[in-house]
Specification:
Helices cover about 80% and strands about 0% of the residues. It is an all-alpha fold and about 280 residues long. It has one domain: Up-down Bundle (Growth Hormone, Chain: A). Helix 4 (about 75-105) runs antiparallel to helix 7 (about 165-190) and helix 4 packs antiparallel against helix 10 (about 225-250). The longest helix is centred in the first third of the chain and has 31 residues, at about 75-105. The N and C termini lie far apart (about 55 Å).
Length: about 280
């Protein structure tokens, strides 16, 4: 289920910009009208039942509950911390992509979109494969491999000698990120208690996304010539953070794995001599 949801997200990242580009060809007014219609449709379909008597707690209280649940769940805390550090590198990579493609490789702005379209396709394939890999090898090994691949590919983006090598490296980075997203969602669904799921989910999302604006600010203040050095430093930091994360997760790998099905043991009734006769 978690890989299917991640696949839907990655598919939307691939199809959305494509449809947006086609609508933009029809005119900015058409694009804005369709976006406004989609926003109104989303708001109308997620408003909930007006007669619902659910008591809503204050946001501060709900977030505090989620934070306390996260603190009491070390396996989830390790994974969220590692992904937060990884998102800093991914955010720098995304923010710096137009600068790198245009100024370093001297390609057009349209080529930036082709990089992310290729990355989305590869990420979809990785998400599809991660579900079968988790079922066969377990969450911890798959997450560790995804983290290692993403880190190595981040180093490749910083050292890429050509646009083709850069595109391949970015695609591999997003594939590793897709695998780790499936791992996070799977662990999250198994470890968070039902009564605190919403509040803990909100806290995990905030912590994982918090480095993204920091990454954008970092790219904004760094000179263009130093972008590759910043990306290289972030990739090294990502490798250290994810290595520490999965070393900490190793102690909780049995908690993260699904319970193995109990095989019923068939007891044979003893055969009495009288019955045998």
């Amino acid at each position: 289920m978690q890989s299917a949801q991640t696949g839907i997200d990655q598919g939307a990242l691939l199809v959305g910009p494509l449809l947006g580009g086609l609508l933009l060809l029809a005119g900015p007014a058409v694009l804005l009208a369709v976006v406004a219609l989609l926003a109104l449709t989303a708001a109308a379909t997620t408003s909930g039942d007006a007669g619902n008597k659910t008591v809503h707690r204050p946001v501060s209280s709900s977030l505090l509950t989620g934070w306390e649940t996260l603190r009491r769940t070390p396996a989830l805390a390790w994974l969220v911390g590692g992904l937060a550090a990884s998102n800093l590198t991914t955010g720098v990579l995304q923010a710096a992509a137009p600068i790198t493609v245009i100024h370093q490789f001297h390609y057009s702005t349209a080529s930036v979109g082709s990089v992310w379209s290729a990355a989305a396709v590869v990420s979809l394939a990785a998400v599809w494969a991660s579900r079968r890999a988790i079922d066969r090898f377990g969450i911890w090994p798959v997450g560790a491999v995804g983290a290692g691949v993403a880190t190595a590919a981040c180093l490749g983006t910083a050292l890429a000698p050509s646009f083709t090598a850069y595109t391949v490296s970015v695609s591999v980075v997003m594939a590793g990120e897709g695998v780790m997203t499936v791992v996070l969602r799977t662990v999250r669904s198994r470890l968070i208690p039902v009564h605190a799921f919403g509040s803990t989910l909100a806290v995990t999302i905030i912590l994982v996304l918090l480095p993204l604006p920091l990454a954008g600010a970092l790219v904004a203040i760094v000179p263009v010539a130093a972008i590759s050095h910043v990306l290289l430093a972030c990739a090294v930091l990502q490798g250290l953070a994810l290595g520490t994360c999965f070393a900490g997760l190793r102690r909780y790998r049995t908690v993260c794995e699904p319970p193995s099905p109990q095989v019923p043991v068939l007891h044979e009734e003893p055969v009495h001599s009288a019955d045998a006769l």
